[in-house]
Amino acid sequence: MSSAKPEVAAPKPKQKSVATHLLAGGIAGSAEALICHPLDTIKVRLQLRGERASKFPGSAASAQVPLRPAGFLSSFGPNSFIGVGARIVQNEGFFALYKGLGAVMTGIIPKIGIRFTSFEQYKQLLADKNGKTNTGGIFLAGLGAGITESVLVVTPMDVIKIRLQAQRNSMMDPLDVPKYKNALHCALVMIREEGVGSLYKGLGLTALRQATNQGVNFTVYQFIKKNLTEMQPDRNGNLPQYQTLLAGIVSGACGPLFNNPIDTIKTRIQKNPSNEKGWQRFVNVTAGIYRNEGWRAFYKGVIPRVLRVAPGQGISFMVYESAYRWLTEAGALWSTENVTALAASKH
Q1: I need a labelling partner for 214 at 20 to 30 A (CA). Which of 129, 225, 244, 307 fits?
Q2: pTM: predicted TM-score of the whole model, two decimal places
Q3: Domain range spanning residue 155?
Q4: DSSP symbols for 3-33
Q5: Mind listing the pLDDT tens digit for each residue in 23-66?
Q6: Angle CA(261)–CA(264)–CA(267) in degrees, nearest 5?
């Protein structure tokens, strides 16, 4: 008779609180938006500039776009992200850099909350019997998180944000009245003039962009975090904030470098009203960009996008990790067991 003991599977990790994920994600998203939104506005203007020039060949916008842009990665010329940003401030005022922030702030809390919450849910579904998820599973969970957030929040938020950012009214001139006054007004006008479906223009491309972004982001971030944790066992997984910030910046830079053409096409589609069907619209916009501006136009805004997304992801991961840890500790402190024990100790 064998005396060998039956194998016992390792206990699965304790499930994390969905509410805590949502709240920590909201805090992280708010911090990211407030710090990084100006770069997003500049990115959108860069991506739309070639379109404006092709429509109005004799305009000032046309004069600002060289026919053969030799240095599309140049960072300091008049048509670079620094030059465009300076021109926005000069012509429209500093706060023009924050156009569309209302739409972002309205959606950022559920967006980041849904991102982290859905990622954790998908990761648990793809985990093995010991509760561990391999690299492929983490990538798939990131893809799922990106698709989920794009359907529930990101697409309508992006459409409204781009419409607001594309307006070239001066915020220093009270008589220069824009078509859209704020995020809510923009949404109502779009629904009235174009229908509810207008808020979901570019959904497929947005989902593709977000899926690839989050698939890469979470995979790289989890890889870096795992290695940093193994190198510092005394920290019990609680990495210093600067390390989570740097890990987030590195992971955040990967997505935009890969999928900027998708983001450029999506921006053009979402900016302009059209009755064309989704695939036909995609083909026409893509062909128009290539025909009128060349292949390099697909990488317009890549520098400000990397500079926006990379630190944004770094801030998001750093604040999320800190907020989640703080909320978890606060929740444990005020748990029923601790409150009961505290009450009993006073008697």
Answers
A1: 129
A2: 0.68
A3: 24-63+71-111+150-331
A4: -PPPP-PPPPPPPPPHHHHHHHHHHHHHHHH
A5: 888 888 888 888 888 888 888 888 777 655 555 555 444 444 44
A6: 150
